Amino acid sequence: AIDDADIGVLVGGEAIATITNSTISNSRSAGIAFSEQAGGEASDNTISGSRGTGVQVSGSAAPSLLRKSITSAGDVGLLYLDGAGGTASGNSISGGRLAVQVSGRSRPGIRSNTIASTSAAGVIYSGSSGGSFSGNTVRNTGEIGVQVGGSAAPVVGGNTITGMSAVGILYLESAAGTASGNSISDVDAGIQAFDTSRPTVEGNTLSSIGIESIVFVGGAAGSVTGNVCPSGAAGIVLVGGASPSLGSNNCSISSRG
Fold first, then answer.
1. Which residue from 22, 27, 55, 249 has the least number of CB within 10 angstroms?
2. Rg (the chain; Cα; Å)
3. pLDDT tens, position by position, 78-108
4. What is the dihedral of CA 232, 236, 242, 244, to 10 degrees?
């Protein structure tokens, strides 16, 4: 076990490492950090109580992160920076402020993870990041399930997103990318697009929506097609002249402002 280190395990340079079955707790900066051009695999590890990040991937590092338990990180559970990549699958990330942040030019493949019980948000994409976020379960993550901002353009597909106090998927600034085949429930708003964002919103199923299923505001554009909205809540709402391309949806359509 590794306890109260600045960084529990650091893999840098061009190193290829295998980190497995380790318990890392109370790290001051990060539990595990991959930097520069590092790679390899970190699997079946338990990381708890990091005051900074649980796992940080930076530079052009591209590790495989598998079946990891990351709990109660002070800042973010899993952080991608710079031009980082690689994959994260089968992990459980819970507690703390934010589960996953993908920033800079990072383009990881994040799939089949369970993300739960954070105070602010589940996942945030920023900068010009991308990659894929697919087949994950995101539940009870504060106000927001998945937020896409900056000029980020990830593929957000096939996820179960439920139990946020505000919105399931949120697009801001000049973000783009695709939200497709997601199941979104028990939120006030299913999918929202603001600013000059231009997402492709297709084939999502929304249920138990408190106020509005899909909302585009102001200069937001993109496209909306093949989505299913619940009865009893507003369907597709266009606010302040927003003008996405509308295909065939099983949703009511209304405009205001």
1. 22
2. 18
3. 999 999 999 999 999 999 999 999 999 999 9
4. 180
